Amino acid sequence: MKSISIKNNQQISFDSIPVLEYDQFLDYNTSLLHIEDNHCVNYYGIPQQGNVQLICCIANDKNGLINISSAVVTLPAILESFSQYHFAFEKFEREIHENFGIHFINHPWLKPVRYPVNQSDKNNTISNYPFFKIESEELHEVGVGPIHAGIIEPGHFRFICNGEQILHLEIQLGYQHRGIENLFLQKKKLIELHTLAENISGDAVVGHTTAFVNLWETLCNQETGADLHFARTLALEIERVAIHTGDLSGMCTDVGYQLGSAVFGRLRTPVINFFQQWCGNRMAKSLIRAGKTNFPFTADLGVTLINVLDKFEPDFDDMCNETFGSPTVMGRFEKTGLVSNEIGKSIGLVGMAARMTNLNRDIRTSHSYNLYETLAHQPILKHHGDVYSRAQIRREEVKQSLAYIRQLIASIPSENLSRKSLPQPSANVFALSLVEGWRGEICHCAVTNDTGDLLHYKIKDPSFHNWLALALAVRNNEISDFPISNKSFDLSYSGHDL
User: Fold this and answer.
1) pLDDT tens-digit profile of 66-113?
2) CB 33 within 8 A of CB 39
3) What pLDDT score was predicted for residue 280?
4) What percent of the chain has pLDDT over 70?
5) Can you list the domains of the chain with their CATH numbers?
């Protein structure tokens, strides 16, 4: 047996994961990615007393299964690269190389990814990052960052330009050294783990916290109550509406369309502020908790939310009509920041960035969780892969989410008043949780030891897949179009720099 197949949010014995010889491990997983229905949701290493156990998780989006396989390698190691056979593995292998010093033969460029405090080679620093260079008197370099002027998060963008035309963009992150994955192992109180999950990416609090609590309940072999499924699904769709609307505001700002900037920004506020009424925090911190809720959703909250949506929706529709009917806006959106379907498949795009290239990748349908099966979710796909496609997806997903929210509120489940405390997580198990955040696929993986404590915790934000798409999208665009391309993806710095 080359792999074990599991469902989203399913617990298995860690020892049941097949351990292959590396050559067989490589052949098996790279062959899986030649099947269009498959994609890699995670690939990482677990240290084991001088060895590293490589864990590869390949999801099949047609049958809803995730194929888990592994290989144990002894350090120091020189291995043949997965990436030469399928480029979607390149970032995963770079991270494994950075963490453990494993050298991958025929990898396109084994650069550092995050510069974590516990990296294998302490000589690799931000200051000596090996940027790609082209020697030419006709070309020039433009550096942007490392502090983002809008969100004040660190990331460096190095452009190689011929006049105003971008020939190449390299995005270098890894400034924050937060060590969140290690903190999951150090912290023993569940409230501390909740707090860590809420701070993985500040604009995706509900997405990452839902992934954590679904995973924790799976580790505890605990069935999730109907009221908790309801609250998590509802909160995910509210978060999607709020962030997509705010991003439409930012996209209008970046093309100088002040009316859209102001109105979409104003519309986002009451939606995100509803979380404040629900749980006391406008980003939904403290709302999502494993095995319980401190803020049950009531009929009165349902009335309040419907009133918010009734005021929001007509103004949102009017502003969308104005924005997408403006020739000056469309002149900046259309055919800017193109990513083709072929490139999307080759680099392993996920979420909205995949769907704008007509790549049907949406965990709500393919690996359903919480209440998405009851909503019969259908992903929204676009074909052109440009800024306009990404704007259209935001517009249509907001409308779709509004319909889902109204459908959910029509039958609010009663709070479970007889709920018991969660038991200790099972010993020596592996579990994986996938959630479709507003950006795309969030993946949390965990392994417990023989006492049920966390032995390993692995987080993947959708931005980990999608930053490369931004670098490729701006090629042959003018450098003045970079801000709108960047905002149209709206990827996470903090979600990448774990």
Assistant:
1) 999 999 999 999 999 999 999 999 999 999 999 999 999 999 999 989
2) yes
3) 96
4) 99
5) 1-113 (3.30.460.80), 180-461 (1.10.645.10)
Paired sense of beta strands 78-80 and 103-105, if any: parallel
Question: CA 388, CA 108: separation in Å to the nearest integer?
Answer: 31
pLDDT in tens, 390-412: 999 999 999 999 999 999 999 99
pLDDT in tens, 14-38: 999 999 999 999 999 999 999 999 9
Query: What pLDDT score does 151 carry?
Result: 62
d(CA 181, CA 195): 13
Return d(Cα 224, Cα 216) in angstroms, integer. Answer: 11
Give the total residue count for the chain.
498
The answer for residues whose C-beta is within 8 angstroms of residue 104's C-beta and 6 or more apart is 79, 80, 81, 82, 83, 93, 96, 97, 110
- Distance between start and end Cα atoms, the chain: 33
Q: Distance (Å, rounded) from C-alpha 349 to C-alpha 234?
A: 26
The predicted-structure confidence for 138-170, as pLDDT tens digits, reads as follows 889 888 878 766 666 788 899 999 999 999 999
CA distances from 434 to 15, 83, 163 (A): 22, 23, 43
410-436 CB burial, b ≥16 within 10 A, e <16: eebbebeeeeeebeebbeebbbbbbbb
Beta pairing partners, 56? 43, 69
| pLDDT reported for residue 149 | 64
State how far the Cα of 5 lies from the Cα of 7, in Å rounded to an integer. 7
Output the CA torsion sign for 141, 147, 152, 155: positive
Listed as ranges, residues in the chain with pLDDT below 50 are none
